[in-house]
Every structure is written in structure tokens, then in C-alpha cells.
């Protein structure tokens, strides 16, 4: 079954790079250009995983991550924050908001695919235990 990834990022360039990479690796991809739209799309489509930028209009990635992980409709969706913000405090804050991983842009392709694969496998194990 094809896995669905939602990219939430206001950079058209970053979004295109992630979208092409993910589609080339067999994923279905949806896109949202800010945190609020991302929340709406996540609720409607129930993706298997979310790639979240931090610096965006309306709601930033930290705010959107917190809202998604606190809402029972979307709390099960693993979030990988992908940001150019490389400070340790940004990483810790993202994880505190509920993100499962934090990767610094430019993200290495192999690392991203490995993290996605691991988080999806963990999600499958959780679903099978229910």
C-alpha cells in the first residue's frame, strides 16, 4: 500500500525538492504552504507522515506541530521537522511540541529516507498491536 506524506512548507523550492524525491521513492504526496493549511490538510487526508518546516506564515511549524500532536484526530501522525534553524534549542523545542525527529536543511536524502522508513515502520508496529 502506498504511503502518504504531507509536506508543510512555504518554500516552493524546498517543497518541489521533497515532493520529487518522495514521489520517486513511491510515496503519495500532498502539499500545504503554511501551518494552518497544513493542519486542515492533515485532518482531511490523514497522511501517514508529515514533513514540517518551522518558519512559515500564519502558524509556524512549532505551533502547527503542537496543534497536530495534541488533537486526537491527528495525534497518531508522526511529524519530522525539517528546518534551516540548526540551534539545539530549536531541535529540543520541536521535540517538546511532539515532533518525532528534527532534521536540518539542507536535508541529506539518505538520512531523510531512513528516518521516514523508521517512523513508518514504528507506526505499522503500533497499528498491529491495537
From TrEMBL:
InterPro entries: Bact_response_regulator, CheY-like_superfamily, Sig_transdc_resp-reg_receiver. The modification 4-aspartylphosphate is found at residue 53. It comes from the Bacteria. Pfam families: Response_reg. GO terms for biological process: phosphorelay signal transduction system. Keywords: Phosphoprotein. Residues 4-120 form the Response regulatory domain. Signal peptide: none annotated. PANTHER family: PROTEIN PILH, STRESS RESPONSE REGULATOR PROTEIN 1. This is Two-component system response regulator. It comes from uncultured Thiotrichaceae bacterium. The lineage of its organism: Bacteria, Pseudomonadati, Pseudomonadota, Gammaproteobacteria, Thiotrichales.
Amino acid at each position: 500500500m502506498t504511503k502518504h506524506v504531507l509536506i508543510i512548507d512555504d518554500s516552493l523550492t524546498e517543497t518541489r525538492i521533497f515532493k520529487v524525491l518522495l514521489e520517486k521513492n513511491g510515496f503519495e504526496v500532498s502539499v500545504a504552504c503554511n501551518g494552518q493549511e497544513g493542519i486542515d490538510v492533515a485532518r482531511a487526508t490523514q497522511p501517514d507522515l508529515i514533513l514540517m518546516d518551522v518558519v512559515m506564515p500564519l502558524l509556524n511549524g512549532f505551533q502547527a506541530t503542537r496543534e497536530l500532536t495534541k488533537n486526537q484526530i491527528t495525534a497518531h501522525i508522526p511529524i519530522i521537522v525539517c528546518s534551516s534553524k540548526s540551534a539545539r534549542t530549536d531541535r529540543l523545542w520541536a521535540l517538546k511540541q511532539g515532533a518525532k525527529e528534527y532534521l536540518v536543511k539542507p536535508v541529506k536524502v539518505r538520512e531523510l529516507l531512513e528516518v521516514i522508513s523508521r517512523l513508518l515502520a514504528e507506526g505499522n508496529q503500533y497499528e498491529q498491536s491495537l
